[in-house]
Write a structure and sequence with these properties.
Layout: E1 3-5, H1 7-14, H2 18-30, E2 36-37, H3 39-48, H4 54-64, E3 68-69, H5 74-89, H6 96-107, E4 111-114, E5 127-129
Parallel strand pairs: 1-4, 2-3, 4-5
Helix pairs in contact: 5-6
Length: 130
């Protein structure tokens, strides 16, 4: 099953978090297909680079561009709407960003790799929480 890398993991990679990098290397043995990132992960990461020095920004952009970028589609919008409606009815509130990431993972049949435990509550989502 291909992987979708969440923003929390991209930041760990950029900061050279050895634990995360080791865990990803192990996961890549089980999931050898190239990993992807969602539209929102790309946005969140690039937005976080605004205050970085140009050299650091360039290195970070080289890192993020190593991943396959998922386009948002009409199906993404429908899945996003379904998730938002379902979980609001259950009294569970997720950020639109997190629901967008989950929607793309579901749409493209990917397993989300994240550090964010709140994704655990999205039943439809295949996920590995590091």
């Amino acid at each position: 099953m291909p992987l979708l890398i969440d923003t929390s993991i991209i930041i760990d990679i950029e900061q050279q978090n050895n634990r995360t990098i080791k865990e990803l290397k192990e996961l890549s043995k089980l999931h050898p297909s190239p990993a992807s990132i969602s539209f929102i992960t790309y946005f969140e990461f690039v937005h976080g680079l605004r205050e970085k020095l140009p050299k650091n920004k360039d290195n970070a952009m080289r890192l993020i561009d190593l991943f396959h970028f998922l386009e948002a589609t009409k199906k993404t919008a429908i899945t996003l709407s379904d998730l938002k409606y379902k979980y609001e009815k259950l009294g569970k509130v997720f950020s639109l960003s997190d629901l967008m990431i989950a929607s793309q993972a579901i749409e493209y049949n990917l397993t989300l790799i994240t550090r964010d435990r709140h994704f655990q509550e999205i039943e439809e989502l295949k996920k590995i929480i590091l």
